[in-house]
Write a structure and sequence with these properties.
The protein is α/β, with parallel strands linked by helices. Helices cover 28% and strands 19% of the residues. The structure holds zinc ion.
Length: 449
Amino acid sequence: MNPNLLFTNARLFTAVDDEVIADGAIWVEGNTIRFAGPAGDLGELPDAVQRVNLGGQFVMPGMTESHAHLSYTNNGPSELDKTPVEDAMVQTVRNARVMLGAGFTSAISFGSVHRIDVYLRDAINSDQIPGPRLMASGRDVGATASNADLHPDYAKPQMEGLGMLADGPWAVRKAVRTLRKNRVDVIKLFLDGERLSAHAPPGELTYTDEEVAAAVQEAHNRNMKVACHARSAAAVKQAVRFGVDYIGHANFIDDEALDLLRKNRDRLFVGPAIAWEMKFLENCTQMGYARTSPVVKEYEQEVEATVAAVARMKAAGVRVLIGGDYGLNITPHGTYAKDLEYFVDLFNLSPAEALLCATRDGGAAVDADGMLGTLEAGKYADLLIVDGDPLADIRILQDQSRITAVMKDGKLYRDLNDDNPYLARSADFLEARPATPGGQHEPYAESAG
Ligand SMILES: [Zn+2]
């Protein structure tokens, strides 16, 4: 299908600014937006355009999940590599459809089991399966005793499908080169770790400067981006100084880290990925941690610090992205839009500001050429049609029955959260062909070719 569609009677959020156009129109031809703005500004259109009256529904750009783990299979946080790769691959195909159905037309992989996301990306791009535009990362890269090295030494095999352990600048370069050969788009590095990993807590740098410099230089030389896990100010500073493109977490920042982020704000992005902490705190007792335990206290402090860090980064003009660490048992696939609620209720952004993080800024992170994230003439047609007003209640986007349709690259999708769209709900479709009085079906007309 090569669509030539005009949507009228839309409440249009273009994400160029925080305004809504009350009587908006948007014209999509092929995979490109030809017009997006007030209906009154629309000129003459060719006759071939199909007109669709949206009856006042909300139209916004597709969102970007900036820290995706599509190959995670809703396991516990220490069981990421528990699922056999064959099963993980099948589940990942489903997760990609679910992510697109949740309104995320782009995603940046922040670590995948094996190379699942590379093949997933290729299958999506060749229209074999539905899913977001995906930057694939393949496996995590980390040092011995980093957060990529979670299992004790007596446990074999060691995270074979999840992390590549590389120590020393040349081994790090080799890991990056291996990932290049495996056709990834972005390298995921661990610069520090997690309170839950005893040997790699936040603030304890698991790579030296030389190793980080080697990773980023090698990745950039080979036309790949670099994403990292960096919770502490020390890790954030290391990330900025050596040129990391996407900084995950940045929970604890000091004045020096903020200053570095500000100076580099035009080339980097930060994603707090706060869902993990929020859901860990919500479910800590089931996960084996008493509410009064030091671990829980420290995660509470981490959330508090992140609220302050996000406020300071936003004030400094640093682009802060939504998304992160969905795909665990406590943050299951499909719930990605919960992040918008955290941005509004926890980080105190307005709903429009949260949408701009999800659309304009996320789109800029995925496509430096500026073809994604806003609804403007000349850009790729990635958009959502929403039954409701996310600016009045940002939680609406968590209810996928309110997402009437998703368009990606000019292609219109519906019912993406239907787990089996091919399953016949009734036998009515069998009666679609007209029968002759004698009870015989008409023969099909010969195709005109
Ligand atoms: Zn992650």
